[in-house]
Amino acid sequence: MLAFATFSAVRSSNRSARIAEAALQEQRRPLLAPSRLEDPTQKIMFLEGHWVGASGGRAAVEHIDGIVYLAISLRNVGSGIAVCQGWAVRPGAARNYPTHVPLEEFRLQSRDLYVPAGDIGMWQGALRHPDDPIRADVSHAIDTSQPITVELLYSDQVGNQRTISRFGLTPANDSTWIVSLNRHWYLDWEGPRPESLTLAATHAVLRDQEAAAERRAAVESERGGGDSRDPRHAESGRSEFQQVDPTGT
Fold this sequence. Notes:
Layout: H1 2-27, E1 32-34, E2 42-45, E3 51-54, E4 58-64, E5 67-76, E6 82-91, E7 107-108, E8 114-115, E9 120-127, H2 133-143, E10 148-155, E11 163-171, E12 177-186, H3 195-227, H4 231-244
Antiparallel strand pairs: 1-5, 2-3, 4-5, 4-12, 5-9, 6-7, 6-8, 6-10, 10-11, 11-12
């Protein structure tokens, strides 16, 4: 009986410790999202002394003298401070990339960037090396007004609960880039959805999109073929059809 009581007490103690640890994690769990459109404009300076500003829900995207400057206006919708650890950028829309950039390919954040819980903050990154292929691809996307995908790696204030959030930057005009949130990856625990289900949903959407595009192309091809025929031929075709089917049914 004494051994059984001891075992029960230890098991209960372990369960209580796990519950307390989970509660502590929830209290300091960060989660980054685009700021609201009504949030104020934020400004941030880069190494060269170059300043950029981003209004609520928007990004600063500039290609000047061969250097790509990127900044995003963020809001931390989580309950803990978000500490930016690294970032990755790729040209093109987020739908082109089924998963996040490998961790070893993230660029380290040289400046401490903290986003307080329930408040707004800024992220910044720059591509400077002239031989960096990503810099060339991203600069081309900027110059041709194509979307850009940015992934941010961040943690809580003690370096745990690492999360990757993917943001899409879409040009609205020559100087305005709208920020959208694509998805989150939780690196230190299972997320709300297994990765397999998320990938399956992504592939299903892409298949539906391709099928819809093929159907539109087929319809447009049929319309174009009908319009390109000689009207006399079309009239002749109708007369022949009437002769074959005199009942008109």
